[in-house]
Each structure stands twice: as structure tokens, then as C-alpha cells.
Design a protein that fits this description.
The longest helix is centred in the N-terminal third of the chain and has 19 residues. β1, α3 and β2 form a beta-alpha-beta unit. This protein is an alpha/beta fold and about 375 residues long. The chain is built from 16 helices and 9 strands.
């Protein structure tokens, strides 16, 4: 499972945004004076950009996950920058590992790529990304501080967060106690595992399993000592007999719906989608914390249209634009100034966990190839029983 599942719900999120017109996002904000002022500021900034010494190339090639943008924004970007719309090539992928392969081969043909956190880490270490010129991305100042200098890009040179989400636990509402602590998930003596034996699933992704087990043990997420990994292995082996299996979205999603699964380690976006067709489900992050994952805007090292790429990234980070985009695709924006425009979405704890919950969450750590191999071996041993 490579992040594809947590985004699959976007395929039903293209119902449209009332009031959005080509060339203006003002209608989306119901005509509030503050929102209108922000739109004027956006237009002013774009006009200023055109007057700077930076000359934008008349072409841009973007590669993003499927169903992961409001494409009307591409028309607005074209209109505001003068880059012909038919020269803005926007293509989609399903597997970011394929993107990494293309970048590593060279001459990828793309100017902006959107990569999950762990792929940024790999691409950065392999020298596949161009260093971003923050002077050309002034809207980066609106990024929430928690998303600056992330572990996968510690100097904040090669990426800026596009959207983010969380990994926690989903449960059918028959599970009246919900999932509030990792003791329920990892300690058989707590009683939860025996009660829902063979009705609980964990994710397939090794890093998610290991980080949650470390949180249960009270270990630092960045502790990769052999002794800690051995404790993690013991915890996962103790849990394994009670599980229905290790499952990606394609299995836990229908399982929760039909009742073969009662509790699932899950991505919040999947549960946002599931709620639309099956209301008997809930989602939460346990008190010990959960993963805060990110998707990131990057420029390949061999990008041809770098000025246009910087302008596009800056455009997507504008608070008004990011608000439109976030509400359309259903994921959380890291642009804090956007929140004033999407208060209804902000109140949904499945999309935006409360601030006190967010403080307990972790970003996927950056690890060496040696540690990656150890984690892979550990999980293979656990799954083999």
C-alpha cells in the first residue's frame, strides 16, 4: 500500500464548488468583505509578480495525485500569469514510487511534482530535487510553523506542504467505547483485543505499524535502537493473533462498511468518504498520538520551467486559493491563513484534529537505508508469525 488508498476517496469529491467562476474565486466565499479583500490582495500579488524581473516561461508541466486539485484553479492561474492554458500540462499518477523512478532516470519532463513525505526524503537524499527559491514563493510565509523544517526536509529547502492528513483508527459505532488509547490496540489484557478478535485490522505500511507501536511503548518516535525495535517486534507479535489482518484501504474500507471489520487503523480521508455512504462509522486519533502525513510541492532538479514552477507553487499557497482547493478535495491545508475561509471544514475533527490532538501527532521520521532494511525485516518476521 503506497498512500493510494488514503486518497482514493477523492474520486467522488468532484461535485463542484458553488459560486466558483473561471477567473475569480470570490463567489466561493459568499461575498464577505474580508474574503473579497483577500482576493484583491491575491490579484495584486500576481500583478506584482508579473512586474518583477522574473520572466515566467510560457509553459508549465505538473504531476499530481489523481483527483487532488480543483482544476478550475489552473484556468485562474493561466489568466493571472499569462501562461497559455493549453501550455499548462497537468497530469496525474497513482503510485509515487513511479514518480521517483522517472525522476531518477532524468528528463522527467515535469516542473512541479507532488510527493508524500517519505518520497521527499528519498528524492532529497538522491539529489533529485531542485532547491526552492523562497524569494519567488512569498506565500510560504503562510505555512503553519509545524510544517516548516520537517524531518524529511530538515532545512526546508526542497519542499513545501501542499495538503496534510492523519492516520488514526476508524470504528463502527457498535464499538461504543471507540478507540481512545493504544492500550486497547496493543495490550491483550486491556480486554479490547479479545472482545473484537479477528475484527481488527492494522495497516500494511511498515512505518505506520512501527511508529504506533513505539507510541504505545512510550518510546521516542526517532529511537531506532536495536533494543527498541526488539520491543516493537514483541508488541506486534503479541497483537497479531487477534487481528483480521494487515489491510490497505481496498480491504478495510469495505470491511468497515459490511461489518467484517469493526476497528481499523486507517487514513482520515478514507473515512471522510466512507461517512458519505455509511454513517455508522467514526474516526479518531488515540491519546498517545498518530501520524500526521503530508503531500509536498517540489521542483525536479531537471525541471525546464523553474520560474513558472515557483509561481505555481506560490499561487497554490495563497490563503484564498488554498481554501478553495482544500474544501474541494476534502483534505486539510497547511496554510493557516486559509482557515478563516473554511470554518465549516475546520470544525470537522476527522479532517482537522483538534489542536490538542495535533500536538501529540508525529511526522514520519527520516531514516537511513540501514534502518529501512531493519524495519522491513522486522515486519516480515511479524507477518510470518
Amino acid at each position: 500500500m503506497v498512500d493510494e488508498g488514503r486518497r482514493s476517496f477523492l474520486k467522488v469529491a468532484v461535485a463542484g464548488i458553488a459560486g466558483l467562476a473561471i477567473g475569480s474565486v470570490a463567489g466561493f466565499f459568499s461575498g464577505s468583505s474580508a474574503s473579497q479583500r483577500r482576493i484583491l490582495e491575491l490579484e495584486s500579488q500576481l500583478e506584482a509578480l508579473k512586474k518583477t524581473k522574473v520572466i515566467l516561461e510560457k509553459e508549465l508541466r505538473v504531476w499530481n495525485w489523481s483527483y487532488y486539485i480543483n482544476e478550475a484553479l489552473l484556468d485562474i492561474f493561466s489568466q493571472q500569469t499569462g501562461i497559455p492554458r493549453d501550455r499548462i500540462i497537468y497530469e496525474e499518477f497513482e503510485d509515487p514510487n513511479y514518480v521517483l523512478t522517472k525522476l531518477e532516470a532524468g528528463n522527467s519532463g515535469y516542473d512541479v511534482v507532488i510527493l508524500p513525505d517519505y518520497c521527499v526524503d528519498i528524492a532529497r537524499k538522491k539529489g533529485l530535487l531542485a532547491e526552492l527559491n523562497k524569494e519567488l514563493i512569498p506565500n510560504a510565509k503562510f505555512i503553519d510553523k509545524k510544517f516548516r523544517n520537517p524531518p524529511y526536509d530538515p532545512d526546508w529547502k526542497f519542499s513545501v506542504v501542499y495538503m496534510w492528513g492523519s492516520t488514526g483508527f476508524a470504528w463502527r459505532k457498535e464499538v461504543e467505547e471507540g478507540v481512545t488509547t493504544l492500550e486497547q490496540i496493543f495490550d491483550p489484557d486491556y480486554g479490547f483485543l479479545p472482545k473484537y478478535r479477528k475484527k481488527i485490522s492494522m495497516l500494511e505500511e511498515a512505518m505506520e505499524l512501527v511508529c504506533f507501536a513505539k507510541a504505545y511503548l512510550g518510546k521516542d518516535i526517532n529511537d531506532w535502537s536495536d533494543s527498541t525495535l526488539e520491543e516493537v517486534k514483541e508488541v506486534l507479535l503479541l497483537q497479531r493473533p487477534y487481528l483480521a489482518g494487515y489491510m490497505g484501504t481496498e480491504k478495510y474500507y469495505p470491511g468497515l462498511k459490511i461489518g467484517t471489520i469493526y476497528v481499523a487503523q486507517a487514513y482520515n480521508g478514507d473515512i471522510v468518504r466512507l461517512r458519505e455512504e455509511f454513517e455508522n462509522v467514526d474516526f479518531g486519533v488515540p491519546e498517545e498520538g498518530g501520524t500526521m502525513w503530508t503531500d509536498n510541492l517540489c521542483i525536479p532538479k531537471d525541471a525546464v520551467h523553474k520560474n513558472a514552477a515557483h509561481a505555481f507553487i506560490n499561487f497554490l499557497l495563497d490563503p484564498a486559493v488554498s481554501a478553495v482547493n482544500s474544501k474541494f478535495i476534502g483534505y486539510a491545508t497547511p496554510v493557516k491563513e486559509s482557515w478563516q475561509f473554511i470554518e465549516d471544514v475546520l470544525k470537522d475533527p476527522v479532517v482537522y484534529p483538534p489542536e490538542e490532538v495535533q500536538k501529540k501527532m508525529w511526522l514520519i521520521p527520516s531514516v537511513s537505508e540501514e534502518i529501512r532494511r531493519k524495519i522491513t525485516t522486522l515486519i516480515l518476521e511479524v507477518k510470518a508469525g
